Amino acid sequence: MSAEAAGSEQAGAGANGAGPRADGGGGGLERINPPHLAPPTGFSHAVRAAPGTLVFLAGQTALDGSGKIVGDGIVEQFERALTNLLEVAAAAGAGPSDLAKLTVFAVDVADYRRHARELGRVWKRLVGGDFPAMAVIGATRLWDETALVEIEGIAVVRER
Fold first, then answer.
1. pTM, entire model
2. Whole-angstrom Cα distance, residue 85 to residue 103?
3. H or E stretch including 48?
4. What gap in Å lies between CA 10 and CA 86, rounded to an integer?
5. CB contact set of 120 (below 8 Å; sequence gap of 6+)
6. How far apart are CA 76 and CA 91, in angstroms?
7. Per residue in 50-93, pLDDT tens?
């Protein structure tokens, strides 16, 4: 192992303060949060994947089964979009702990930030305490004009 890789291992504390999970959980993903950077809140600075299969998850909005956006506000739409993303991931063999990278597109980033605590509670209820590398990007509008949020991602699936 190179000195650089060894340093990453030592700096590899996860968002919850732990490095790679000893129980084999996390889908072979290691959350890396160097101590000299600001502590991440609700995301990991980096996620290193063990060998596995990459699954690219298309952007999901708050569409219901009939193709209509449901939910009046950002929290309701985020919950539905995340639920849709998790269902797609499951169909591809990936669980919540296999999520390595997510991008959230929000039409009103200020509104997203105002509801950060509520969004965090939704995340923890649906996904748990493992946070992928993550970004929130402001968008002028999404494909469906009534959508407030869209979530896309990458998961790493290993044989279990």
1. 0.75
2. 11
3. strand 46-49
4. 31
5. 42
6. 23
7. 777 889 999 999 999 898 999 999 999 999 999 999 999 999 88
